[in-house]
Amino acid sequence: MKIRILPPDVQQQIAAGEVIERPASVVKELIENALDASADTIRVEIQEGGRRLIKVTDNGPGMAAEDVGLACERFATSKITSATDIARIQTFGFRGEALPSIASVSRLRLLTRQREDQLGTEHRLEAGRLTSQRQAGAPVGTSVEVWDVFYNTPARRRFMRSLRTEYGHILGTFTRFALAFPDTNLSLSFDGREVYSFQPGSLQERLTACFGGETTSGLEEVEDAGLSGRVWGAVLPSQAGWRRRYYLFVNRRPIRNRTLYRAVRDAWGEAGGLVLLFLELHPSQLDVNIHPAKAEVRFRDDTAIYSLVRSALEHRQRPAWLQTEAVAEQQEAYDGASVNGFSLVGQVENSFLLTASEGHVYLLDQHAAEERVLYERLQNGRVQARRLIAPQVVKLSIDEQALLDDTAEALSACRFELDAFGPGVIALRAVPDFVEPQSSGLIFSRLLARLRNKKEDITQALSCLAALKAGQMLSREAQEQLLTAWTQTAHPHACAHDRPVYFRLSLDEVRRRLGRTGLSCGFEGNDES
Q: Which pTM value belongs to this model?
């Protein structure tokens, strides 16, 4: 076959595919441009999961009219002038690919004005080609609107996921910048509804705004420094078996890197939780140019970075429950604490509570026990609404939309609050107080699926879905709280589905089976049997 140079439009689409993977990639690139422009207020607006519109507005200094056209050309940048500049780059964007890549697969409108100009400049592009340019009224700063992303690349558009998935990726991207820049005013809207509005503040305040006060109250600080650089941040060991969430930054750039993942895993073990780490390195110590979207970095000295991060994590104050093996407490925790007549021994296989009471040993199924507790709370109306800082977006099938209408009153009684969020999409604004915010969308989707089967009522299904799971490690305090709550239920013998909660064994039966009747070891006169 004859070798030939690809047409410019095909070249642009290939380049765009390297930089723009999905709508969240557009959000990432435009926020980075705004931050590089020293904006301290950035507003992100999304329609239809980014398929219809992505708009990012900032209050930066804006661009001169003569620079606007160049900004949409490949390899046009104000960040570097020579190859040597790449080795000491300190900005997010520098390859001159973001705007032209976005423009090549969308309909783009760029509006910008400098403070000294009376009017701003508007450029419109379609599939990378300039369609109009004019002067226009505009506030100081820059606004980029990206319409109909991938409209001219149907194959790419078909590979986009559901609205819920795309919204989730956008939320994840936005959250990472919110954590990296707590001193920046950031807001995010989905289909005209504000999801996040962050005021400038400290990292602790931003963490609380993102994840809630209950989540961040147990944060542990991490900090260390060495010849290779400095690492600092926070970790939240999870006592509820969350899957781990990584938020890793190098010079405030959200990144992926195998060395960092390995250091965290080796220091942290298999426990879940939140890991938030910031590395501060001299630009010469890393290469951010190995990935077109700059999502990955390569360190000059992987070994030194690995040692720095692992040491920082290992020298934090580790909670006792994180250092346990098969049973969730350390040996000294087996103090036979009495809870409403039950002596708590501990947790077995992260699934059962071992207790004793009135001459019997009990193995308590932690899932069934909490299911009973939640079920009675729902039945008795002893549940409060938990407002979600970030509403959870849930996509509904036609059947689920009909089911939602039929169960609206029951859902409200369980303290769910939701709004229509577009065709076939709702937003959860509040959930029952025992539902964790980060899992609320998934639990709600599973709740609707179970209600479709009509084999259980909403309180049975919800209490089962939200209850502790087998294999979930509990702290000593959490075990005692569960045992206390269970002993106070009206019907402690069965879960919401009438499955047994516990297995009971008489201590007399234990003694009989062990031959501990009379002289246990067969030596007459032995008083130590």
A: 0.58
